[in-house]
Amino acid sequence: MKQAIKVTKLRFSYGQNEVIHGINFQVAKGKIATLIGNTGGGKTSLVKLLIGLEEGQGQIELLGENLEALSTPLEQIIRVVFASSYQTFRAKNVKNILMHPLKNMNLKEEEINIYLGDIVALFKIEHLLSKNPKELTKEEASIIAIATALVTKPQILILDDAFIHMGAIAKKRIFRILKQLNRKNHLTIFNVTHDVNDILYGDYVILLYQGKVVLKGDVADVIKSEKILKKYHYELPFMAELSDKLRYYNVIEETILDMNRMVSTIWK
Amino acid sequence: MEIRLENVCYLDKTSSLQDISENFIENNVYGIIGPSGSGKSTFGKLLAGELILHEGHIYYDNLLIDSDSNRDKYVEVQKKVGYVSEEQEFIMPTVYEELAQKIKKQHYRESELEKRIFDALKMVGLSRTFISRNPRTLSTGEQRKLSLAIALICNPKVVILDEPIFGMDPFEQKKLIRLVRMLKMRYHKIVIIISNDLDFMLPVVDQILVMEDGKVKMNQAKYQALKATRKLKNMGIQVPRMIEFSDIVLKKKKIKIGYRDHMNDLIKDIYRYAEWGCHNK
Fold this sequence. Notes:
The structure holds two protein chains of two kinds. Chain A is α/β, with parallel strands linked by helices. Helices cover 35% and strands 25% of the residues of chain A. Chain B is an alpha/beta fold. The relative contact order of chain B is 0.15. The mean pLDDT of chain B is 89.
């Protein structure tokens, strides 16, 4: 399988202080990977390394090409949304914010409108287009930040705490859109988060602790690694823990992560 | 210490608060929740004396703020209230100076100043080695802790935390909960937490205020507030998953499980009711 992100023996230091200690991991193309890890453990440094904002030692490959020698412009391959991305909005309205990344792509005007129209329809943000970024709630602004990252149709999307300003309903809605892009366009998603429940949205999990990868694997395997997660102060996602315990008491036979299905399985 | 609000109103370009009358009493932890844009942060800033009151009265014990109050009054409020904003900006080159600046008006001797700074850092769980770091190079979670240290260094009677857990991992969230408990139990402060993370809040708050469209829609003891889960969910607030689960059970099977603090109690309930279901067949 082709790897969207391949990191080999990656090291990184702030001055004397090494924050990433030679890590290896891969995210296959078209997968959703979730990265969890402690504060100051190197998560954001890693994200910056992946887009070339910082330079470390070791190797980073995106879609099989070395980060330093990509054949396509970086922003068409990979885009990042940070928790604070919305604070960098400079344009006078949302439409201009969304159009900004397209201007560097040498597109004709009608093409720009197609790209723009696609993203507006997908995220249902028509009603926000003429608003000044200052008039947006943080939730709306965070949605616009994600939409802006996707407007150029990159193949990899990195989300670094990008959901913290969203309520539960908005977060679910945006995740549904992202999953749709993941299925249809094979968008690879790398979600960096503190919310352990997020891992259930994805396929693959990486736990980065104090600059080392201490756990990685498919979601189904990771939720069986309760001991390792606990060691690093992570609880299992609620449904994973509930499943686990009910299986132990033979109330259910297999892991069930969907609440509705769980209820109808317990009370057949 | 008591904060009493009477018919408080506030309006600016992006936010408004309408007719808020609530009380905050010492020895209590309050959680303020509500959808994005509901006025939570504005409310927090207003309580912290960071915004000018347009209408109504706020009493901090005997200190009254109303639309006629001058700047000195607001400075008085800021002394009583330690406020941790969601987006703190750091201006000094080192953590030490950032903290020292906050108490420079007190003119402490160097040794006393140092002691206060180390105490504040210790309280929030930052080690002494941080003093020479540049605040802007700290990680998000570390910056949050520094903001908290800055708020606590003046020993305020009231502590307001706006989205305190952004950027914090679960371990640090637990430490923050312990700190909030200590502020309440040992130092008898009023603590106000503004957040949408009920999972984080529940273990530590006594009272929950729900805001929507610039109004306080509900102000109840926490277990009472939790009964209105459907309402909270419709506002886009993530209710604890255990409550969500119990809700589905109630809706689909008419079986009342209720909120449990521990997963094992929930399992016992399920086991009992599931078996009962089998016997009934």
